[in-house]
Amino acid sequence: MASSSGRKVQQIGCPAHPEAHLIEDYRAGDQICSVCGLVVGDRVIDVGSEWRTFSSDKNAADPSRVGGAENKLLGSSDLSTMIGDARGAASFTADGQSKYQNRRQMSSSDRALTNAFREIALMADRISLPRTIVDRSNNLFKQVHDGRNLKGRSNDAIASACLYISCRQEGVPRTFKEICAVSKISKKEIGRCFKLILKALDTTVDMITTGDFMSRFCANLRLPNYVQRAATYIARRAAKELDIVPGRSPISVAAAAIYMASQASEDKKTQKEIGDIAGVADVTIRQSYKLMLPRAAELFPPDFNFHTPIEDLPEL
Amino acid sequence: MALVQPLASGNVMTNGSATNCSAVPGKAAGAALGCDTAAAQQLSSDTQQAADHKSGAAAAGEAEEAPVEEEVDITINNVVCSFSVRCHLDLRYIAMNGDNVEYRRENGMVTMKLRKPYTTASMWSSGKITCTGLTSEPAAKVAARRVARYLQKRLNYQTRFCNFRVVNVLGTCTMPFAIKIADFSQKYPRLACYEPELHPGVTFRIKEFKATLKVFSTGSITVTAPSVAAVQRAIEHIFPLVNEFRKERTAADLAAVAASRARRYGSRDSSESDLDDDDSDID
């Protein structure tokens, strides 16, 4: 608070009373001698906050902050100011050219990172992924980028693979085809990058299960809740417990289970519709369905009310 | 636990196109010949019979589960070898004057196909040559020498046959049981990679033998390794690991296996259809 007498003489003190306490007047920015009232230091800078902020108002811009929050993933060495795109009439000269043409160059690694983060954010936005997945993805990308093992691969491919891995790690896996749909990289390349990243970061991911996709597929097909629950039960029984569909991808099994459940209920969906939503060919659904049909009685949950009984399920 | 013990003599495996890791003791050579053969050619049948006889006898000491006699045949489908003739080759000249050659300028190589050990030799202008499509290591040596001899005789090159090495061997084998690959891949998370969306099999890498195995739920296993002996050792290594996750085949599975076998050996083409990394299940 006030300068103590134990410090060096360079501290401000009243000339008449060097040992006296100095009272700080924050509002005026003064330091006043407590004995004689002489103003000793003036224009003392108040380091308190300029604006008051209330915790309820999260979304509004915080007036105490200058500029955005520092992105820890980008190089923390870069504190330079970047001149943004020209907006408004004042940013153009008489000739019609923008006034600030030479924008400050970012370091190249930062530029690659920024581009990748933007790509990830764009892709995630297309399939409405939450912020946590995007952040995790950014972290993965930064780790991969720093490790430099995948240097030759296209950054977009690595970004897509990072997005895929982060969805998996969060427990809400997206199929490769879904990631393909929002990225311009082929499924093969994403798969390759996926394997390389796992090796580079020395991590493993859990295997996909049929239940991971049920809520999404059924919601897209607008199936009622009891059909979704039945399909989840059927797929789990077929794949895990009875193992009637060895070697089939869990997505195909899930699609076939949805088909079976919807055909037994009122809201019947065709194989083509389900195939479109799940990204599975309808012949694939047919193959898995043929394997599951003989044991349909064991697959359905016990409390399922059949609109169409099991004997009348289609034989496709 | 059934273990496949290593055969006494290493070179037994390389004779002939049918390589039998037969666990059935004392089985006659004639019957053993009926086992899987990948290629239509047979090298001289008496060497093969001698080989099979030897393998049957050597494997007599194996301990198998009491009543069940299990036979695990390893078929070598593809041997790739590479060597150098130590002289610069004029690809255009070879393309114009050689028999059975094809010149692809965009790849910068000439491919020559041999009939006798059926093989495709790719030649580069540096003098390095790669032979693919062979079915055994000695056949590879023969084919390589034949190619070099052809270049020497017909095309008058001063060839020196050197640096011959077998680069890659592809072997396939079918277990007599089906495999629960999901559980198998979860037990060995570092070594095994199973992505059902990408490939229907588990990719298992054995660092020791530098072998990559693809394990399928039907019980088929594909091995790529630097030599035939490594292929054999890799299969032996993986047998107990896979045996743990065995699942007896149902009647439908057996029918499917028999059908695929008839399809495969009915035609001459022996390559496994699921060797590519493309997704065959989806799309």
What does this structure look like?
The complex is a heterodimer of chains A (316) and B (283). Chain A is mainly α. Among the domains of chain A are: 94 residues, Cyclin A, domain 1 (Orthogonal Bundle); 102 residues, Cyclin A, domain 1 (Orthogonal Bundle). Chain A has eleven helices and three strands. Chain A has a three-stranded antiparallel beta sheet with strand order 1-2-3, with no helix packed on it. In chain A, a hairpin with a 4-residue loop joins strand 1 and strand 2. In chain A, helix 1 packs across helix 3, helix 2 crosses helix 3 and helix 9 packs across helix 10. The longest helix of chain A is centred in the middle third of the chain and has 19 residues. The radius of gyration of chain A is 32 Å and the shape is elongated. Chain A starts with 21 loop residues before the first strand and ends in a 17-residue tail after the last helix. The N terminus of chain A is likely disordered. Chain B has 283 residues and is α+β, with helices and mostly antiparallel strands. Among the domains of chain B are: 87 residues, TATA-Binding Protein; 90 residues, 2-Layer Sandwich (TATA-Binding Protein). Helix content of chain B is 29%, strand content 27%. In chain B, strands 1, 2, 3, 4, 5, 6, 7, 9, 10, 11 and 12 form an eleven-stranded antiparallel beta sheet that branches. A two-stranded antiparallel ribbon of chain B has the order 8-13. Chain B is elongated and about 60 Å long. The two termini of chain B are 40 Å apart. Classes of the chains: A mainly alpha (316), B alpha+beta (283). Chains A and B meet through helix 5 and helix 8 of A and helix 5 of B.
Index terms:
heterodimer; A: 316 residues; mainly alpha; Cyclin A, domain 1; three-stranded antiparallel beta sheet; 11 helices; 44% helix; B: 283 residues; alpha+beta; TATA-Binding Protein; eleven-stranded antiparallel beta sheet; two-stranded antiparallel sheet; 7 helices; elongated; disordered C terminus; transcription (chain B); TATA box-binding protein-like 1 (chain B); TBP_dom_sf (chain B); transcription regulation (chain B); DNA binding (chain B)
